[in-house]
Amino acid sequence: MNDEESLLNSTSSAPSSIELPWVLPSRGHVGMLSLIAAELAIFTIFVVAYLFYIGKSLTGPTPKDVLELPIFSSICLLSSSLTIHAAVSALRNGRVRAFGMWWFVTMVLGLIFLGETGREWHHLIFEKGLTISTNLFGTTYYSLVGLHAFHVTVGLICIAIAMILALLGKVKQEHNERADVFSLYWHFVDVVWIVVFTVVYIIGR
Amino acid sequence: MASETIALTAAHDVPQPIGTVLHDWVVTVDHKKLGILYILYALVFLVIGGIEATIMRVQLIVPHNHFVSPQVFNRMFTMHGTTMIFFVAMPILFGFGNYLIPLMIGARDMAFPRLNAWSFWLTAFGGLLLYFSFIGGNGLYGAGNAPDVGWFAYAPLTATAFSPGHSTDFWTLGLLVSGFGSIGTAVNILATIVCLRCPGMTLGKMPLLAWLNLVMAAMVLLAISPLTAAQMMLSLDRFLGAHFFDTLAGGSAVLWMHFFWIFGHPEVYVLVIPAFAFASEIIPVFSRKPIFGYPVMVAATVCIGFVGFSVWAHHMFTVGMNSYANSFFTITTMVIGVPTGIKIFNWIATMWGGKIILKTPMLFCIAFLFQFLIAGLTGIMLSAAPFDWQLGNSYFVVAHFHYVIVGGILFTLFGAFYYWFPKMSGRMYNETLGKWHFWLFFIGFHLTFDFMHVPGLLGMPRRIYTYEPGRGWDIWNLICTIGVFFQIAGTFVFIGNLLWSYFKGNAAGNDPWDAWTLEWSTSSPPVEYNFAKIPVVKSRRPLWDIKHPEDPDWKYE
């Protein structure tokens, strides 16, 4: 590294032979989409296991006996996709207060979903006697719904951190890309819920 | 752009206290340091996995041998397979990818440097977790220590009834943790190649190594994740009493096989595609010709990437599937030989009429071409379901996949070591020692794995602890084991060469091979920021354009 002299004087003559502007996709979006691809593969395996084991439990309770359609919590989770979209586009346009409001609504909707899942599990465990080790239905149900709920929890932790930063006034317009990248994850979690809902509560029942 | 550097501080050349140096390496987020950490880590495990293989071969050298106990033998083949795939091959290839990709695409680092460090340390701790089983595997039940369920850990062997204690838990958790690391690295490689290419480097002008690593990273995302999911299920079975693979409660052992091999076979391509990438960089430089059929090479790789996901159940012909499944997986497995064959033709066509320079990296790549061809041919044989019924789970299969992994992947890896060692260390390796390494390892490889096909054809099953004399297996096993010692000698020469050259080798200069890709335009070893000025490229061989301004490549591409 015999460099000291030959440095900055030579870097000034940058060749400008490229006419078109050189723009590549943002690494945040590509990174998040890659992660989503990997997550999709994980969920696929769990969904395949669920479908494969439908009706193969040797003992009860069966899905027909104990499952009820979680309509309310599903509506909450799915509408949180709309609110997070509203939050991100508000931030993109520099409306920081509107961002904070929509972001907060998203968090509340996510919390309601998680609370409802918790209530459902409490009902199943303590009133219906269904645990992960009861039968194959319990095994696949708790692991698939639990895997999804885990992803909702991770998302909520991220949302809560951003919420705290927003309350401290640290979230500015220039952060809109980060919020946008996170919203990809949140939309993904919602789409997965549509699949889980279909598999567990419609096909599986 | 050849050798410009920016003087950041004058403190660069001052020797640092060992504590500071160590601290720098532990907290580093630099892709080159992390790449070297990956490689060194994998080399340590290569030696460990090699010792385990040697123990197995010594056990099998003569009939009725009792070099180790049957229990230890089971642990050795489990740990050997797991170590070599997850803690040698994957990290070493990620290491080279980490080191080379930003340099070759003209970037200053990976897209997510901290994610990069996180992924490395996860992989590292995954390996430590697996090996901690030797100490902590006993658990409460006084059962065996290291995992002994085989590297694909078929149910119900992994059930708590058959694997008491914690040995299988360590196996599961070790792979789960390192799997997260692999996914992180794959995300990083993808984002780096898609988002950080230097101006002018369109997808069609990327070095083949970058292209092949792009396909590899995409495959990692879709192949490692099913394994991660399956390991989660196995953990639920073992820790919480779930019944995914518990046949007594209606669970299915075959489901585990499907989940494992949906990972397991694409994994072979995850490992071999970076090996192809090394060959695709080394062979042109040592033939003094550009790669033959660049677009076809890319297309063949992408094709392998797709078809690679539809062949997994050829590992399960002997399990008993219906005739439609057997036919489907036979056909897809044969089909994947086509793009692979195209690649072999292209490498040979690259050498055809070239001025071939038989330096050590090229020797390893030429050996790779022929060995990988044979590995592919035995693969086509095994792809036919009836043939596989006869030879599945025999030493013929063991010989076949070691031909792929050692004869194909390890040989190109050794080539890559010699090719990029001057760039990484700034020193030239010793060519004589390199040739010694090549010939010792070449002879050892062929002694061991050529002759391993024969006892397989004669009916010797894999994973047996010992065997009866007089079945015609004795002499072949003896030859196989003798070959191992040649391989060990070659490996010693290799490590000795690395160490000696690192301290005493001649200065290599920036571009010892008169090569054409961007990593050779910066200093050896590269400075922390790689390029003082981000390069601008106009063709696939930017350094050729600079060296031959009268006849640049971009006129023809």
How would you describe this structure to a colleague?
- The complex is a heterodimer of chains A (205) and B (557).
- Chain A has 205 residues and is mainly alpha-helical.
- Chain A is built from 7 helices and no strands.
- Chain A is elongated and about 60 Å long.
- With 557 residues, chain B is mostly helical.
- Chain B has 16 helices and no strands.
- In chain B, α2 runs parallel beside α4, α4 (113-136) runs antiparallel to α5 (167-195) and α11 (360-383) packs parallel to α14 (431-457).
- Chains A and B meet through α1, α2 and α6 of A and α5, α6 and α7 of B.
Key words describing this protein structure:
heterodimer; A: 205 residues; mainly alpha; 72% helix; disordered N terminus; B: 557 residues; 16 helices; 0% strand; globular
SSE order and pairing:
The complex is a heterodimer of chains A (205) and B (557).
Chain A: H1 8-11, H2 27-52, H3 63-66, H4 71-92, H5 96-127, H6 136-167, H7 176-203
Chain B: H1 18-27, H2 31-59, H3 70-104, H4 113-136, H5 167-195, H6 208-240, H7 253-287, H8 294-307, H9 323-335, H10 337-351, H11 360-383, H12 385-391, H13 395-425, H14 431-457, H15 474-504, H16 542-547
Helix pairs in contact in B: 2-3, 2-4, 2-15, 3-4, 3-5, 3-7, 4-5, 5-6, 6-7, 6-8, 7-11, 7-13, 8-10, 10-11, 11-13, 11-14, 13-14, 14-15
Distance N to C terminus of chain A: 69 Å
What's the average pLDDT of chain A?
A: 90
What is the rounded distance between the termini of chain B? 22 Å
Approximate helicity band of chain A? over 70%
Summarize it:
The complex is a heterodimer of chains A (205) and B (557). Chain A is an all-alpha fold and 205 residues long.
